[in-house]
Amino acid sequence: MTREGKRLSRNFGLLAGLGALLIAGGIVGLIYTGVATLTSMLLFGWLLLIGGVVGLAHAVASRGTRYFWLAAVVAALNIAAGIIVIRYPVESAEALTMFAALLFLTGGLFRLVGSVVVRGPQFGWTLLQGAFGLLLGILVLVDWPHSSLYVLGTFFSLALLFDGLGLVAMGVGGRRIVSMVTPAPPPAK
Asked: Which of 50, 61, 69, 85 is in Cβ range 3.0-4.6 Å of 92 for a Cys bridge?
């Protein structure tokens, strides 16, 4: 195998390794959903705070331009939201869980009504998807605020798990493709 082929194969191996780490994180998060919820809220808060500070630095650097005040206000809102989420992660999780439940309800309702009105080629699947979204929203709302302890952590952990599975599949498939298209070294004499 050529040097470029080995490097590509190694990089795809690293990609599969990262995927395995994400899978492990997703499984741990599914086991400890409460911890995953609080961790994701704290991570979200810190990302808002850091993004706000960077945005504020960008706004200060661009003072004198037309969008200075807009950038400064958006940065200040990000900083304030980050501080609130970090200080009150449980309450923030409750608010975001309510928001997610309402999104599931409205999305499910629109899909149900849309599938019945339009009756397109994917009528059955759209109807099923709408019913599932509506049911999920109802289930989350019925148990709210208790559901906020596990809903966001479960979603976050499932996202980690499936992203990890995708990276492992990409890494393994990429290594296989590299081995198929990379010429073998010439035989030694």
From this structure: 85
Per-residue pLDDT of the chain in tens (189 residues, 90 and over written 9): 567 777 777 788 888 888 999 999 999 999 998 999 999 999 999 999 999 999 999 999 888 888 889 999 999 999 999 999 999 999 999 999 999 899 989 998 988 888 888 887 888 888 888 888 899 889 888 988 888 888 888 888 999 899 999 888 888 888 787 777 766 666 776
Cα separation, 52 vs 80, whole angstroms: 8
Round to whole Å and give the CA distance between 181 and 164. Answer: 26
Identity of residue 96: L
- Taking alpha carbons only, the member of 109, 92, 96, 108 closest to residue 155 is 96
Alpha-carbon distance of 165 to 24, in angstroms, equals 10
pTM here is 0.69
Count Cβ neighbours within 10 Å for each residue of 91-102 and write b for 16 or more, e otherwise: ebbbebbbebbe
Q: At what angle do helices 151-181 and 3-31 cross, to 10 degrees?
A: 160
